Amino acid sequence: MRVFFIFIFMKSLEDKLKNPVWHSLNETHNSFLISYDSVRFYRPEVCTFGAFEDHSKTANALDAYSKITERFFVVSEIEPMINPKKIVLEKKIVGCQMVLKGQVKLEVEISENIVLLTEEYIDEIYDLIWLVMPGYYQKRSFEMGKYFGIFKGGKLVSITGQRMQTNDFIEVSAVVTHPDYRKKGYGKQLVTHTTNEILREGKTPILHTDKGNSAIPLYKNLGYQVTRDMNWWLYQRK
Length: 238
What we know:
The chain is α+β, with helices and mostly antiparallel strands. It has helices at residues 13-17, 20-26, 58-66, 122-132, 186-200, 216-222; strands spanning 33-36, 39-42, 49-51, 71-76, 87-93, 95-100, 115-116, 147-152, 155-165, 169-177, 204-210, 224-229, 231-237. It contains 6 helices and 13 strands.
């Protein structure tokens, strides 16, 4: 009698962090997946991010994705291959990945009333993010994770949310505060709250930012450390 042994290769957290978009679409966000020959993208109405494992397959996949969305990002340390007759690189955003050291709850005073945002606030979330940080967020990005906010006078003035997710990590994202309400500690409190929510789920909090972001010292002070480069390659259909 023959006996067959099946070995299932399980990716480690470290492996997943090297390619967070690809693994998010493989796991928690699989319902948002569009795949072209193993190159993976979010449905563009949710998020215009893509990622790859096989560099040789990206040119055709980017061509195909560009037919359903004019502008999109590929999130990767290395530059993908493209067909320059159909796709043009608009810009490269030099970014980095930060991961919380340890799995210990952040002990930061929360003086503001932080609210879990429901679908009722989708338009307000969208407007605030596009005011402060245009280009990354779609209205249905709300479906990617939880969003939290601070209100003043009935107005949503500061938010943070969750974006990429796997069985092992959740990304803190959309950390934005209205320009009229900055330097009040709202962002610090929201990042703390969101980080602790992720820890309560037994997952590792991570975040991504561009290398010139003035908030990096704040993130480091909270316990996040830079672990690797993570670039955003913004492409546009010709």
